[in-house]
Structures are given as structure tokens and as C-alpha cells.
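Protocol step 6 of 9: fold each sequence in the batch and record its C-alpha cells directly after the sequence line. For illustration, a two-sequence batch is reproduced in full.

Sequence one:
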Amino acid sequence: MTGARGRARRFARAWDDLRGRSARRVVDLVRGQIAVVRDGAGLARATATGATDRSAARARMAEVEHEGDAARAELVETLRRVLATPIDREDLFRLSRSIDDVLDHLRDYVRETDLFGPEDLGFAVEPLQAVIDGLAELDAAVLKMLDDPGSVTVAVLATRKCCNRLRQLCQARLAELFSGPLRMETLRERELLARLDAVGRRLGEAADALADAMLKRSH
């Protein structure tokens, strides 16, 4: 009886694969992971605008991190079970890992604003908005993987543009800082700008992972 049920489950899973449900499930899980990171980016921005207390944001970010870990774990477990995926499993792992790295650096940013951040975090509002915009573009690109794969590369470029905007904003702020006297506040802000730049690099790596995967799929 148990063997019959096992065969039935395997058959049902294979049928789902044949009908594309597994691929859709994987896409939904990747988007779920991105959604958690978007929550983290929104929380980080709220600290920069002063809408959220830094210590409260740090506590909430710990919860967001757990949600991100759970979302990644579910994706990894699903990849072990399904027969068909929209792109290679290796590329999905790479994409998921890069998305997780974005959240890790956002977590560190929020923690550092609470530990030693400067009094005014206004400089971080625009860079963090670029992160939020980039994550939205990445989500749109992932959504197109099944229904409009030919447009994924264009959508990924939009993510890259957001990353470039973030870097330019950070560089401009650094130039402004270094044009004035060197103070402790300057050093604190520089550290946070470096963290934001790292967020942008990880987001760019996620975009590259998806672009590479789609190029491989087209061959």
C-alpha cells in the first residue's frame, strides 16, 4: 500500500513537471525570496527617513532575516524534488545565494546604523530607494522567465541600471564628505556608504546570475 502511494506521488510529481507546474512553483519561490529582501530594503529606508527607530528596525530585521532563510530553504528543498526547472539548478542556486547576500548586507547596514551610525541618515535614502527599485526590476525579470523569456535580459538590464545609480550616489556622497574636514561622523558615514555599495554589488551579482542563466538556456 505504501509503495502504491509512493508511486502515485511520483507520478503526480512527474505529471506536474510535464505540465510546467514545477517550473511555475520554482519561479514563485524565487519571487518569494525577493519579496522578503524587498521588505528588508524598505525597513532600511525607513530608518534613513526616520520613520522607524533604529533599534526597533534592528530587531525587526532579525525577523526578516529568518524569513529570508526560510524562503531560501524552501526553494533549495523544492529544487531537490522537482524534475523540471525554468533554468539550470546551478544557476538557480547562484541566483538564490546572491539574493540572500543582498539581505545579509542590508541586515548588517541596519545593525551598523544602530551601533555606530551618524545622527543623520538622510544620505542613505536615495541609495536605498535604488535598491528597492532594483529588486522590483529583478522580480519583474524573474516573472518573465516562463511567459516571456526573450525579454528577461532587458529586464535584468533595468536592475543593473539601479545598481549603477546606487554606486554613483555613494561615490558622489563620498566625494562630498572628503571635500570637508575629517570628523568621526565622516568615518561613520563612510562605513555605511561602503555597506550600501556592497548591497548594490550583491544585487548586481543576482542580476548577472539570471542573465547568464537565460543566455545558457537560449543555446
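Sequence two, same batch, same settings:
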Amino acid sequence: MVRYVLESHSMKVTGPSGPSSSQGARPAKAAGGFSVPSSSAGAPAGATASAASVGGVAGVSALMALQGVEDATERRRRAIRRGSGLLDRLDELKLALLGGEAGEGALERLGRGLREERPIDADPALNGLLAQIDLRAAVELAKADLRRTAA
């Protein structure tokens, strides 16, 4: 088991010249006015750096994990947006067919929308409605395919 011991140094910030230590450690000057206190006693600098890097990696990993988690509200919003988009593509297709066009562009967009992954929501009524929209879009794509093969 690895155990880290942290020594507390009371530091006091005095302004633009950098921190000063009340225990008498002299800061080592670096470029740009930044100063780091010298570590005369306590843990070696390598152990301190590795402990800090482990903490940094753990913090980044936790942040990335939180970003990857999708909450129920966002999943529901995406499902509704997808269903609404499919309904819009179906309307485009309807208008194209009523206008005497084949509606190939609308069919292509409808097919792309249907191939998108549909998020599953906790609400069974919403899932049922989205499944009906998907079915209607699939029927329209199948009808268009039949018209193409018959011609």
C-alpha cells in the first residue's frame, strides 16, 4: 500500500513578487516572476510530482466520465428531436409527391433520419409514438422502392 505524507507549509502571498514562506525556505526564482519554494525537507520532488500527476489524471478521468453520462432529460430531448425530424421529412415527401415530383431528396433525407439511432426513453407512450413514426417512415421508403423497381 502506498501512503503519501503531505507536509503543511504556511504560505503567504505577498503580491507580484511571488509567495513567501513563513518557515524560512527560500523560493527558487524561475522565468517570468514565478517562484517555487525549495524542498529542503520532506518528500522528494519526484514523489510529490507523481502524486500530483495521479490526482490530475483521476480528475480528468472523472470529468470525462461525467461528460459521457447522458441523463434522462437529454435522452428524451434527442428522441423527440429525432421523431420531429422524421415527421418533417415525411411532410417534405408529401409535398413533393403532391407537386408531381419523385421526392428523391426527401427520400434520401428520410432514410438518413431513420438510420440514426433512436434513444430509448423511460416513457412507454413516447417510445410507442416514436416507433409508429419509424414505421411510417419505413413504409414510405418501401413504397418508394417499389415505385422505382416497377418503373
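Proceed to step 7 once all outputs are recorded. Observation for sequence two: Residues 72-98 form the longest helix (27 residues).
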